[in-house]
Please model this.
Amino acid sequence: MIEFKSAEEIGRMAVTGQFVGELLAELAGVAEVGVNLMDLEHHARRRISERGAESCYWDYAPSFGRGPFRNVLCLSVNDAVLHGLPHDYVLRDGDLLSIDMAAGIDGWVADSALSVVVGTPDPADLKLIEATEVALEAGIAAAQPGGRLGDISAAIGEVAHSYGYRVNAEFGGHGIGRTMHEAPHVANSGRARRGLKLDPGLTIAIEPWFCRSTDKIRYDKDGWTIRSADGSRTAHSEHTVAITAAGPQVLTRRPTQSPTPTESTRKPGTAS
Model:
């Protein structure tokens, strides 16, 4: 069942989204060579507690994974792309780190992710991250009232293919609002003008993620961490977005990011 949100409810989600966006930007700045992943995890736990927020990850127990998730961040390094468990690992020069978090404030949730290179970047890693960011912006720009869910999926897939990457269809975006995962599923590849109509009040998380040279994945023994099947590097970008009568409203913009597509003349498929 899909729950459409009122303008007031979207405003409450935006409060959470602002916090999530600010904390992600903060964590990206903390992630440096020599920093332990558990330092990032504990930093986030402290900030979530100080804000009076709740982590959507803590005790999350879906059909996959082994036991409930007992962290507030997903930290995925290099060939890991989704659901990476924070653990005792010290970041090294050139590591590609994806940070994903979802939190709730007063019963309303927001979810967002970004990827960064720690230390000296490999141009191929920067290209991969750029592709996810451009695909995310294209997906957001396609999230127009009266359109179709497939418009978003097609826009993401088109960017992926233009960069030379294949798309895995097993995991993608999702509805969001009172809980982290709601209907509908938002695939990262699809056909335009197909699928659910995008009516005002729909709130979704759009999250393209790509592997450098494969669309196949494998799981670690922990049952959570998802990696590229061939060991190639990966990247992940995500925003929580509300469909409004005026166009898509991004609820998790980070402090240094540019305005939403409805506030600028940016064309679909161009980076923010």
